[in-house]
Specification:
Layout (H helix, E strand, L loop, with lengths): L5 H7 L3 H12 L3 E7 L4 E6 L7 E6 L7 E4 L9 H11 L5 E3 L3 H20 L8 H46 L6 H13 L6 H20 L2 H31 L9 H4 L6 H6 L3 E17 L4 E10 L5 E9 L15 E9 L8 E3 L3 E3 L3 H10 L4 H13 L7 E13 L2 E5 L5 E4 L8 H6 L8 E12 L4 E10 L4 E3 L3
Parallel strand pairs: 1-5, 14-16
Antiparallel strand pairs: 1-2, 2-3, 3-4, 6-7, 6-9, 7-8, 9-10, 9-11, 12-13, 12-15, 13-14, 15-16, 16-17
Length: 492
Amino acid sequence: MREVTEQQILALAPNASAASNGKKISQKGGFVKLERSEDDTLYMGECTGSGKNNYITSADYIDANNPVFRCSCPSRQFPCKHSLGLMYEMMAKKEFGICEIPEDIQKKREKKQARDNKASESAKPESEMTEEEKKKAEKKKASAARTAKNAKVKKLKTQLEGLDLVERVVNDLMSAGLGTLGGASLQTYQQLAKQMGDYYLPGPQRLCSHLLIEITAFQKDQDEAHYDEAISVLEKLWTLIKKSRQYINEKLEKDDVTLDDTVLYEELGGIWKLSELEELGKSKKDASLMQLSFWVLYDEARKEYIDTGCWADLDTGEVLMSYNYRPLKSLKYVKQDDSVFGVAKVPSAVFYPGDGNVRVRWDGAQIRGYEKSDYDAVFAHAITSVKQEAKAVKNFLKNAMTQPMFIKLIAFDQIGKTGESYVLADKNGGTVLLGNMPGMEDTILRLSILPDSTLFENQVLLGAFYYDRGSRRLKVQPLSIITHDTVVRLLY
């Protein structure tokens, strides 16, 4: 009988909850029938559940390193809790009767084998191909390329149609005034926002949803902050429409559907693969990334949670961001990220297009603890003049297409209070007010209760520059304080 360990089960489980539920099914005697094939490659179980009929689940080990799980239950998790429960039955060495391999599973095995054989033939080195095979492969490759190109052209044209629709919505809003939007008209615009998904325009769709959320909130409480935010969103939406239309028209005129190093690709519905970013040269080998802050926000317009990690590249001092998106409708299937208290040694890190704190991703990394040289690198790369940095930051934040904050490492002489406000003073005498950016957690309060006064002198602050519309001035939200031997996180 096949050996199964709990570590193997947990590694295969889509999340901890599924593994726990599978274990409960096994422990409570949920399986009324257990069988396995004589060659030990197939395990089957009949399990009671919430449905009218029992569920039939199986674990197919025809490829021992890549088992295939099947179940008649309606769950979209793979493997589901019943399949995991079957593995717990195997781990417990329950008695399995011997059975024949069902005909439907045998057919599925044959289809999989046929696909594998076809893939193996396609992967054959050109040097091993006959002339006929080479011609056939080239013809197939050319046909696939034409099909892919035609599909991309069709998508671009559809997006142009959608942009026309979005532009009409924006023009109507600007002509009538945001204050007139309500009641039946609000529902009409909400419906139009949903339609943008049919035009492959997730960026404009999210901005329209965000705009409607702010206007609805303003109508309820008359808080001018909502109105100001709506104006800001409208500005970004209008900028995105103009830039996107220009970008798409240029692509169509040049008959060029190749990938570009631009943020518009993602705003227009593109999803980057790591290999694509590497092909564009947006990668770095053997990167050392030190996580300095972490937080989770809920984006109402996107209907998803965003786990955000803030990392310092120890070679350059550049502050990079990692994002894990967890849509509400998929919370059961997407694992939440967590803080990393250490340095990620990344064999190959890739970077998304954009300015400011760009997004970084990688596939596989080793995490080690902080070392003295890591803290020294942070101090070496930190900016020393907030006055000098302020001009560049202001120009960056004026761009409607950028993020509303710019995170930097700031070497400071002192952090103290002026009246009720905290102020950072750099070593050149420059100062900047500290505050809480709208939508972020309150870190000023956490700053005020730090017990060690030495943290407020001659250290480095990980701070997010942002424009405070209320006071109409540039401020910095404190995220972490880095000393020569520790990281004090205000967000973790």
